[in-house]
Design brief:
Blueprint: H1 2-18, E1 36-38, E2 41-42, E3 51-52, E4 58-61, H2 62-68, E5 72-76, E6 81-86, E7 89-94, E8 99-102, E9 105-108, E10 114-116, E11 119-123, H3 124-129, E12 134-138, E13 143-147, H4 149-156, E14 169-174, E15 177-180, H5 181-185, H6 188-191, H7 199-204, H8 211-229, H9 239-247, H10 255-274, E16 278-285, E17 291-293, E18 296-309, E19 337-347, E20 359-360, E21 373-376
Parallel strand pairs: 1-13
Antiparallel strand pairs: 1-2, 3-4, 4-11, 5-6, 6-7, 7-8, 8-9, 10-11, 12-13, 14-15, 16-18, 17-18, 18-19, 19-20, 19-21
Helix pairs in contact: 8-9, 9-10
């Protein structure tokens, strides 16, 4: 009997080597957020965010994107298949298969639908080719704009106006803000009613450079900086690469200040290991809402984060670790997504204050007193 079991195990191991297994594309190393704008409105995802997988394909949650376009999304558990009913189309998307069915006719996607963190993710090509919407990839902003035929007609007729990132104005400027419809829906202007943004004066007063060009550069610094700070894992964090990613996105300072910052980051990495921190998150700067006071460019940023592991949840991120009296530090819940806005400052040590030199000014942005508000996402 023992010999028979040994033989069966050996055969199983041999078959596993000979027979190819299904290879799933998984999220790649790029942890920057990918904003998705559908018909002029930015989509807020309650948990799983779009990502670029190891096949180089942009994957989006099929439910939230499809529903924003007016589709009905169902889940067939027995066959592990997502069903999307859109206009006169019934679309079946089996997990881990490139082959889908549209009104009974088989079609092939460039990468398979996949399950990630409990959500069915489909390639962006699905939205354009199967749902028939126009998809634009904005490489500078690292974002996606999706427009269906009906909304495009509104744009062509001048019924709606879009900002440089494809988001719909309510009023181009109102109370100093560049007023966007989605931010109004999310309560952004109520939260920052105390602010005197002077966004209109700053944005419209720009001379000799294109606002979006430099705003995208600022946004890149913010996204890349927080791709490191919010995504930490005590089991794998590398002090050198972590420090490098943060420092390259901070504004240039004196050699002494840079040395101090590097020391602070080094001590924080030691704390990550001691506190057994695992966390993930994203930063999404609202670049149409920027303003400037003296040398500081202020950017409202939407932060989304989750603590997976930590012995002390009041000090998880660099922004709420050993904080100064200007910031808050308090216990946060594990295994829930938080989302909300805070202000972040950009600065430069360049004497001429040229826009291309601006980058993240300091630590402690997410929890500065009286400037942030987070809630658990449902």
């Amino acid at each position: 009997m023992k010999k028979t079991l040994t033989l069966l195990v050996a055969m199983a191991m041999l078959i596993s080597v000979i027979m190819p297994t299904a290879v799933k594309a998984i999220p790649g190393d790029d942890l920057r957020i990918i904003p998705v704008i559908v018909n002029g409105l930015k989509v807020r995802f309650p948990d799983t965010e779009p990502y670029i997988n190891t096949d180089g394909r942009t994957m989006v949650p099929v439910r939230f994107v499809s529903e924003k376009l007016g589709a009905e999304v169902l889940w067939e558990h027995d066959t592990q298949t997502a069903i999307v009913n859109y206009e006169e189309k019934s679309i079946r998307l089996p997990l881990d298969s490139k082959h889908i069915s549209v009104n009974g006719n088989e079609e092939e996607l460039d990468t398979a639908a996949e399950k990630h963190e409990g959500r069915t993710m489909v390639p962006l090509r699905f939205v354009s080719e199967v749902l028939g919407s126009q998809v634009k990839w904005d490489d500078d902003a690292h974002s996606v704009q999706i427009i269906d035929e009906a909304y495009q007609k509104k744009i062509d007729a001048g019924e709606v106006k879009l900002d440089p990132w494809g988001r719909e104005y309510v009023d181009e400027f109102y109370n100093g803000w560049m007023n966007l419809k989605d931010l109004e829906l999310y309560g952004f202007y109520e939260q920052f009613s105390w602010a005197s943004p002077e966004s209109e004066e700053f944005i419209t007063g720009i001379k000799g450079w294109t606002f979006k060009t430099f705003a995208d550069q600022w946004g890149e610094h913010i996204k890349d900086y927080y791709a490191a700070q919010l995504n930490v894992d005590y089991r794998t964090i590398d002090k050198s690469s972590f420090t490098q990613q943060l420092m390259k996105n901070m504004s240039g300072r004196s050699d002494y200040e840079m040395y101090q910052n590097e020391q602070i980051i080094s001590e924080y990495v030691d704390w990550v290991k001691e506190n057994k921190i695992i966390a993930k998150g994203y930063a999404d700067p609202e670049l149409s809402q920027v303003s400037k006071t003296d040398s500081i460019i202020s950017v409202p940023v939407y932060f989304k984060f989750k603590i997976i592991s930590a012995e002390d949840t009041s000090q998880v991120f660099l922004d709420n670790w050993k904080v100064s009296p200007a910031s808050d530090s308090f216990e946060l819940e594990k295994e829930v997504w938080y989302g909300g806005y805070a202000y972040l400052g950009l600065n430069t040590n360049a004497g001429n204050y040229k826009q291309e030199h601006y980058a993240v000014d300091r630590f402690e942005n997410m929890f500065t007193k009286l400037t942030y508000k987070y809630e658990i996402l449902q």
